[in-house]
Specification:
alpha+beta, Jelly Rolls, four-stranded antiparallel beta sheet, 10 helices, globular, binds zinc ion
């Protein structure tokens, strides 16, 4: 609470000193949250605009809500800058917020005895982090890690529960997405058991590319190994094979896709299955 008040004070000082409220140009307050170390860049109070654009439109679930529901939500949203490798939730953490990614990517990671890890879900601006809140969950079952930095909108758990009770359309949108995410997790479980490291790496790179706003992915092979549940040397070899086929360029932790169609051929069938499931349940604006 003290942090929130401090952020509002800092934010107000910045607004008033810059005189920018009128032209909708907001300043990063630079307030650090604990424990997830999220930098708050501007505070709610009806503010979800940055620059001259409506940032909420960049999240497909929020954009699909009817105007009435959306206008109730907007004053309750905070816009945050999330940095790569930061954690939104650890497994067993209390689920206090849902996060709607705008241009960041979040990966859900499951771990065994705090050692072996594997990806169980990838979330970009097509979805949200924390959907189990609407199914009665109080605690996270996975770690939610920021894979690529960017912005997200945050809403308290109590607020999303309240709004979902009032709006059947909101419940439908979020539960549809939660269903797609569960289907993705189930497919990934089979993928990690039966498909080769090379095919899984190609599938993962395509899934990241689908959600990425920039042409280049910055990710270490250590992190890729922990997402694929394999050794680093295995990922290095898989990346080398894919690179030798001229499908990607991988240089010092930077990966660029050179031949997307070729990468789709190299990926396991899970990529097409997950993509079609996502498309099937994609939130669309309600037609009245
Ligand atoms: Zn697979």
């Amino acid at each position: 609470m003290i942090t929130i008040k401090l952020a509002l004070i800092v934010s107000n000082i910045l607004f008033s000193s810059q005189g920018t409220r009128a032209n909708r140009r907001y300043i990063h307050a630079g307030v650090q949250y604990q424990p997830s170390q999220i930098t708050v860049c501007c505070f709610a109070g009806g503010v979800v605009l940055e620059g001259s654009e409506n940032r909420w439109q960049e999240n497909q679930l929020l954009a699909a809500l009817p105007e009435k529901e959306r206008s109730r939500l907007i004053p309750q949203l905070e816009i945050l800058t999330l940095f790569a490798k930061e954690t939104l939730y650890e497994a067993a953490d209390e689920l206090n917020y849902v996060y709607f990614p705008l241009d960041c990517i979040v990966v859900l990671i499951s771990s065994v005895e705090s050692k072996a890890t594997v990806e169980v879900g990838l979330i970009g601006n097509e979805g949200l982090v924390g959907a189990p809140i609407l199914m009665g969950a109080k605690h996270s079952t996975n770690q939610a890690l920021i894979l690529t930095e960017g912005k997200a909108l945050r809403l308290p758990a109590a607020a999303i529960r309240k709004e979902a009770k009032r709006s059947s359309r909101m419940r439908e949108i979020i539960l549809n997405y939660a269903n797609a995410l569960m289907a993705q997790s189930a497919q990934l479980a089979a993928c990690h058991r039966y498909h080769t490291p090379q095919a899984r790496l190609a599938r993962l790179l395509l899934m990241i590319d689908d959600r990425m706003q920039s042409p280049e992915l910055r990710v270490t092979q250590d992190l890729l190994a922990s997402l694929l549940g394999t050794r680093r040397a295995t990922v290095t070899e898989a990346a080398r094979q894919i690179q030798n086929s001229q499908l990607i360029q991988s240089v010092r932790g930077r990966i660029r896709l050179l031949d997307r169609k070729g990468l789709e051929k190299a990926a396991c069938s899970c990529y097409a299955i997950i993509s079609s499931q996502q498309l099937e349940t994609k939130a669309r604006p309600e037609i009245s």
